[in-house]
Amino acid sequence: MAIERGLGGNMTVMGERLPEAWMVEWHRNRRVEFPIRRWLFLQLTLLYFGISAGTLIRLPDILDEPGWRYFGYLAIVLYVGTAGFVVWTFVTQRPYLVVDHTGIHSGRRFMAWTDIGSIGLLRGPVRQLPIHPKNVWAKDLVITRQHVNDLQSFRTWLDEVLEEQRRTESPRDDDASDWRRTH
User: Fold this and answer.
1) Which of 15, 28, 176, 182 has its CA 20 to 30 A from that of 37?
2) Which residues, in sequence order, are bridge partners of residue 54?
3) What is the largest CA-CA distance in the chain?
4) pLDDT tens sequence across 47-69
5) Per-residue pLDDT at 108
6) Chain centroid to CA 14: how far?
7) What pTM value is reported for the model?
8) Which numeric CATH code is attached to 3-36+93-169?
């Protein structure tokens, strides 16, 4: 289970927990879900609305001016749409980052274990973890702190899971070629 009740009814998000909890969940279900960390998402949302507060304050004046009226209506539609998206994301904590027996799902992006070339190093001031595909022309799958607080620990854990997946991968072609050689 990705979310468990802590003391006092607080919800603990898997991305805030230690790698040992991830490994226990992995061995129990072969699946670990990392929903959006609400506090980080709320901080980014407040920053967005704080920066755009100037437009909200001037909105009545914008609606009164004939040349800018359509811009005012567009701003209202954008704010209502953004607020709806923020509420939906805050309540559902989606998109999820899911690590399961088939691969890594990040929102709508997916990379199978067999397609992963390597787990990259942390990069950038906002700390991103790239997962490099074997196909050099394919795009990296990028993990941010939006789902996992400690990306360095997540990288180490993900390396362990990747190695485990590579060890347990059944080589179908080798089995077939062994059969042909013996018969």
Assistant:
1) 28
2) none
3) 87
4) 777 777 777 788 888 888 888 88
5) 87
6) 12
7) 0.66
8) 2.30.29
